[in-house]
């Protein structure tokens, strides 16, 4: 069994009842509509098709949910419509990747997901309270960015919502990565921001909702990559180079490399369209496998009761020679 299949069974076990969740607050996400990211005629990667599998037996053994969800009332009147929309749609609970890992790990405390007014664009993890916070201002900014792309590229009316949802999924998963590093005391060498970008990408690639097609899954990640270039100017000062986050352009190509590394044959066209350089693409399959193996090693010891049966297969995968 390939690692991709094993991880799907493991991390999609709690998705048995979530086949319709992706459309609660927005239409199912699709591929990007700009010229560099239009859906191609390339074959759907076989590996991604297999991610749709799940296990009812595994779902029945899940521990009690480890996450909580809340929607804080904003003080600003212009944020009220956003609050009402996300609260009524129970947006946080509808994110399939978050639901896939709810109850999966033995955490020292419950992790709480909250939407709130922040006064600026952003999302963050609060170690003191164990909260992943998504700002209402972030949803507004993402939607406006989606509207700009829709108008400039002649995209469909549903594009702003699809763009918003794809990016908020990546953003929430990025902050969830910070939470897991903190709560599980996971060792991270190098920049933690890069590591949790990788985890967010892996979760989105492997554990989308059951009603999402492989093309839609890849489209979500490409829309997330697009946002990373939204403030790109090519001109930076020392503060930008010294920041804990990589430059937007670097995060963009890192994410594209993980996409490509999932199935280089299926995504060979990414090099032709400029989404990835040939030099970087040459090592992306190895990079994707190394990233997945590393996160598996970190998370496996923290599995909740009911997931022990997967440890032997995981150990076989970890023990395999890289590149095979």
From TrEMBL:
Signal peptide range in chain numbering: 1-28
Q: Which domain of life is it from?
A: Bacteria
Keywords assigned by UniProt, alphabetized: Signal
Which InterPro entries does the annotation name? Answer: DUF4344 (IPR025644)
Q: Name one Pfam family in it.
A: DUF4344
Q: What is the protein named? A: Uncharacterized protein YceK
Species this chain originates from: Luteimonas terrae
């Amino acid at each position: 069994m390939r690692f991709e299949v094993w991880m799907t069974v493991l991390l999609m076990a709690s998705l048995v009842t979530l086949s319709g969740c992706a459309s609660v607050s927005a239409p199912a996400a699709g591929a990007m509509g700009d010229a560099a990211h239009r859906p191609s005629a390339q074959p759907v990667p076989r590996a991604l098709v297999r991610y749709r599998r799940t296990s009812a037996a595994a779902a029945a053994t899940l521990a009690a949910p480890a996450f909580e969800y809340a929607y804080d009332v904003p003080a600003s009147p212009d944020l009220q419509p956003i609050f009402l929309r996300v609260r009524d749609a129970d947006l946080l609970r509808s994110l399939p990747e978050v639901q896939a890992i709810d109850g999966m790990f033995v955490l020292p405390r419950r992790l709480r997901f909250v939407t709130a007014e922040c006064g600026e664009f952003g999302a963050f993890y609060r170690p003191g309270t164990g909260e992943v916070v998504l700002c209402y201002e972030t949803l507004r900014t993402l939607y406006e960015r989606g509207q700009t792309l829709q108008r400039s590229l002649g995209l469909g009316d549903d594009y702003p919502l699809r763009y918003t949802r794809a990016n908020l999924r990546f953003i929430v998963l990025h902050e969830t990565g910070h939470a897991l590093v903190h709560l599980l005391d996971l060792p991270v060498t190098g920049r933690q921001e890069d590591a949790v970008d990788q985890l967010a990408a892996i979760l989105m690639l492997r554990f989308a909702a059951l009603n999402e097609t492989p093309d839609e899954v890849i489209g979500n990640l490409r829309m997330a990559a697009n946002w990373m270039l939204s403030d790109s100017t090519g001109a930076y000062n020392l503060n930008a180079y010294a920041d804990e986050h990589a430059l937007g352009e670097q995060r963009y190509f890192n994410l594209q490399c993980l996409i490509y590394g999932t199935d280089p044959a299926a995504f060979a066209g990414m090099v032709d369209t400029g989404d990835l350089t040939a030099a970087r693409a040459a090592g992306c399959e190895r990079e994707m496998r190394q990233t997945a193996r590393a996160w598996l090693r970190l998370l496996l010891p923290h599995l909740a009761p009911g997931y022990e049966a997967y440890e032997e297969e995981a150990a076989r995968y970890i023990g395999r020679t890289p590149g095979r």
